[in-house]
Structure formats: structure tokens, C-alpha cells
Amino acid sequence: MDTLWHIQEMILDYFEILEVDKSASQADIKKSYRRLAAKYHPDRNDSSEAKEKFQAIQEAYDVISDPKKRSLYLKTNYT
């Protein structure tokens, strides 16, 4: 199962990880991040893949919540 998550993570982009559209507002991104972080936080979720999903969610939020990182990410991944 862990291998499947790694494969899915490589295929998914940060917007898909956070379940938001590329045009999502900062408020929508933050709301989705908080919802998913609470759902997959290792202290709240005992599943074997929760820690990996939580780390992916944190990484995605770190990139797309920062306007400079988001701009660079969009340029390198969508052009």
C-alpha cells in the first residue's frame, strides 16, 4: 500500500493533493489544508499511510500557499 501512495504522489500534483483548483483562493487553499491535515494527522489517524499523506499535504501547502513558490511551481509544471 505504501508503494501505491508513492506512485500516486508522483502522478498527483500539489493542487490535487490539496483537492483544490489551480485558480483557488488563498482562503480555499488554507481551508482545504486544515481539513486534510486534521484528517490525516498521525495523532488522529492510525492508518499506515497517514504519516506519508500528512507529509505530502504539508509539502503541497508549503508550495501553493506561498505566492512566489506557487508562481514558480505553475511555470515549471504547467507550461
Termini separation: 32 Å
**What's the main sheet like?**
none
Number of strands: 0
Radius of gyration: 13 Å
Contiguous helical run count: 5
Q: Give the CA-based shape.
A: elongated
Q: Hey, roughly how much beta strand do the residues contain?
A: under 5%
Order of helices and strands: HHHHH
Low-confidence spans: pLDDT under 50, at least 5 residues? Answer: none
Structural class by sheet pairing and helices = mainly alpha
Would you tell me the overall average pLDDT?
86
Characterise this structure.
- The protein is mostly helical.
- It contains five helices and no strands.
- Helix 3 runs antiparallel to helix 4 (50-64).
- It starts with a helix and ends with a helix.
- The mean pLDDT is 86.
Topology:
Blueprint (H helix, E strand, L loop, with lengths): L1 H10 L2 H4 L8 H15 L9 H15 L2 H12 L1
Write a concise keyword list for the protein shown above.
mainly alpha
Question: Could you provide a short overview of the structure?
Answer:
With 79 residues, this protein is an all-alpha fold. It has helices at residues 2-11, 14-17, 26-40, 50-64, 67-78. Helix 3 (26-40) packs antiparallel against helix 4.
